[in-house]
Design goal:
The protein is built from six helices and 20 strands. It has helices spanning 3-9, 27-35, 49-60, 96-108, 116-124, 161-164, and strands at 19-21, 40-43, 65-66, 77-79, 87-88, 91-92, 132-134, 136-137, 140-141, 146-149, 154-157, 174-185, 189-190, 193-199, 225-228, 235-239, 242-246, 249-250, 255-264, 269-272. The protein is globular, with a radius of gyration of 18 Å. The protein starts with a helix and ends with a strand. It binds 2-oxoglutaric acid and fe (ii) ion. 2-oxoglutaric acid is lined by residues 154, 159, 179, 181, 193, 240, 244, 246, 256, 258.
């Protein structure tokens, strides 16, 4: 055996960088995600398939908007507003608030039999000792989340409000930030979520095309990764500071409800879209 093959064959994985599958989210899962003892927690059947189908049917007649096309290519569609499209000088652009009002009205017009955001927050926080709610910014409640569809997937990127917003995003300072997704519809193939054991480093900027939210895959070439294939109704939580991407979908729509979850100094879990 040459020393080269020895090096490649002794590639060691981090036993903590794994996907945990569980019947429900617990406080231990959230602690493990924040402290790096797991990479993602997947809860099958968080929402019954029939309810997912009902929401998908309601959304199929709805007009999705596109995330800012100069920043997000290939295109990602959204129903509802995401604050990432309303960043201005390190803070929230004034136009976010009226857009959020329109988004609330649009969600209201779907006349869903239940509030999926409230339901999703309750399941993330079912075992959490503190309050679970929607984050506030200068006295105003943020958006609860967005429905997203990315037929061509998401590029390799990370989400970290502490870096993206130099102003404090929520009233309560945050200790950690997780990403939550609930998959309402999944394609026959593709659409996997890939998470890398790598966090932003200044030298990564050389892999970010000017103005893009995403990085080229070179950025994570040496990093360990895990892949999550979700089924309809699955909930997924992960630390969004780890780089992640979504593969293109084939055969059928991939629609997910998504929001960020902040672990606040107040002991609260605070969601925002
Ligand atoms: O749709 C997914 O699986 C992940 C989307 C994403 O980038 C996020 O939730 O931050
Ligand atoms: Fe993300």
């Amino acid at each position: 055996m040459t020393s080269d093959s020895l090096i490649t064959s002794t590639y060691v994985r981090d036993p903590f960088f794994r996907v945990v599958t569980a019947p429900g989210f617990t406080r231990h899962h959230i602690a493990d995600l924040v402290s790096g003892r797991c990479a993602a927690v997947q809860v099958p059947n968080l929402l019954p398939g029939a309810v997912c189908g009902e929401i998908v049917r309601a959304l199929s007649g709805a007009d999705f908007d596109q995330y800012g096309a100069e920043r997000v290519q290939p295109a990602v569609m959204r129903f509802g507003v995401g604050v990432s499209d309303y960043r201005s000088d390190g803070g929230i652009a004034a136009e976010y608030w009226p857009a959020l009002e329109r988004s609330r009205a649009a969600w209201g017009s779907l006349s869903l039999p239940l509030d999926p955001w409230e339901m999703a927050r309750q399941s993330v926080g079912a075992d959490w000792p503190g309050r679970v709610g929607v984050g506030r910014h200068e006295g105003r409640e943020m958006g609860a989340g967005v429905a997203r569809e990315a037929p061509q997937g998401f590029l390799v990127h990370y989400d970290d409000s502490a870096r993206e917003f130099t102003d404090q995003l929520l009233e309560a300072p945050l200790l950690a930030q997780l990403a939550f997704n609930l998959y309402l519809s999944v394609p026959e193939s593709g659409g996997e979520t890939v998470i890398w054991r790598h966090r932003w480093h200044p030298r990564d900027e050389e892999f970010r095309p000017q103005g893009s939210y995403g990085f080229t895959s070179e950025c994570v070439r040496d990093a360990e990764s895990i892949e999550v294939r979700a089924a309809v109704g699955d909930g997924l939580l992960f630390d969004s500071r780890n780089y992640h991407a979504v593969k293109p979908s084939h055969g059928g729509r991939r629609i997910a409800l998504g929001f960020s979850v902040g672990v606040a100094v107040t002991g609260e879990l605070l969601a925002w879209g």
